[in-house]
Amino acid sequence: MKSAFCLLLLAAAIAARADFATGLAAYQKGDYVTAMKEWMPLAEQGDAPTQFNVGLLYLDGHGVPQSPAEAVKWFTRSADQDYTEAQHNLGAMYGSGQGVKRDYVQAYKWLNICAAKGNAGCVNQRDLIAKKLKRGQLENAQRLSTEFKPKKESEKSEN
């Protein structure tokens, strides 16, 4: 019984990766509607890389109406799970006020988390944002990034 359950989970994981790959192939061909159709179920289930890609579709208006606010929603879900590319984009969007109210503290937080992983683009953007912050704001932003604890969405629903 236990091995049958493990086999079922493995089959589901393989199917999910196949859907991601199908979506990626469609995206690369410029068929953004199909990419969204393949990716949305995975994103809704909490797959961080797929959530990031859905965010990109909304940011660019590929296959869906362009919506920076919707992009922020998907980038946030992905970034909360510690997906570096989403953290980078989210930091940039908070820094520019695209899809959200401009918030340099939040921008610094996300860019600092991303920079700590060695992403040079995040380091450069974080340092530019730091120049716009007052000392207390910078300390708050640094505290927020230090306190960040990634959490998979499946864990969030269990707690």
Account of the 3D structure:
- The protein is built from nine helices and no strands.
- Residues about 1-15 have low confidence and may be disordered.
- By secondary structure, the chain is mostly helical.
- α1 packs antiparallel against α2 (about 30-45) and α4 (about 70-80) packs across α5 (about 85-95).
- The chain has two domains: about 1-75; about 80-155, no CATH class.
- The protein is elongated, with a radius of gyration of 17 Å.
- The two termini are about 25 Å apart.
- The relative contact order is 0.09.
Overall tally of domains: 2
Estimate the mean pLDDT confidence: 89
Number of strands: 0
Shape: elongated
What fraction of the residues are assigned to beta strands by DSSP? under 5%
* Protein structure class: mainly alpha
Order of helices and strands: HHHHHHHHH
Q: What distance lies between the first and last C-alpha atoms, to the nearest angstrom?
A: 27 Å
Helix content: over 70%
Low-confidence spans: pLDDT under 50, at least 5 residues?
1-14
Rg over CA atoms, rounded to whole Å, is 17 Å
Number of helices: 9
Largest sheet: none
